[in-house]
Amino acid sequence: MNKNIDTRIPDRDVVEFEHLMESLFQCCRERLQYQSERFELPDAELRCLLLFEGERYLTAKGLAYRLNVAKSRVTKLVSALVRRGLLASLPDPADSRVKLLSLTPEGGRLIGEIARFRFEAHQAVLAWFNPEQRAELLHSLSLLSRHMKSVRDLMA
Predict the structure, then answer these.
(1) Is residue 1 part of a domain?
(2) DSSP-assigned letters across all residues of 48-93
(3) Is the alpha carbon torsion for 15, 20, 21, 27 positive or negative?
(4) Residue 3 has what DSSP assignment?
(5) What value does the mean pLDDT take over residues 112-123?
(6) I want to staple 103 with a disulfide (CB 3.0 to 4.6 A). Which of 14, 97, 107, 111 is the partner?
(7) Do 58 and 93 lie in a common domain?
(8) Same domain, 34 and 61
């Protein structure tokens, strides 16, 4: 065990941390629901589409892995996004059994809109903090993220 880890944490701190994390998680779920409604896409399709940001091509197998769902579920999501004109399916020149999936121009435009929406939402939250508070918040969130990943790795 890491000798720098403080194991003498009062129960009330753990309970408060748990409640705050649940509150943040609920807030994020509500924002995702609002985002889904605003862009008229079911949450699963929206999450699938957003994986294409910065990607030229993805495969159904790669999407299934990144979404942590069965390939059959991805096939349904991709079919819906293709019907909406947001994704295109192309044969892989290197392997005719594989379909390469890519954004259509409309899909790229929608991802840009979603990115702007998310940026503005995060900017609005940060606007409530003065510069010193923002720096402290960002530093603390960075630490939290790093330590949560460390604990996850220890639990694996």
Answers:
(1) no
(2) HHHTTTT-S-B-HHHHHHHHTS-HHHHHHHHHHHHHTTSEEEEEET
(3) positive
(4) T
(5) 96
(6) 107
(7) yes
(8) no
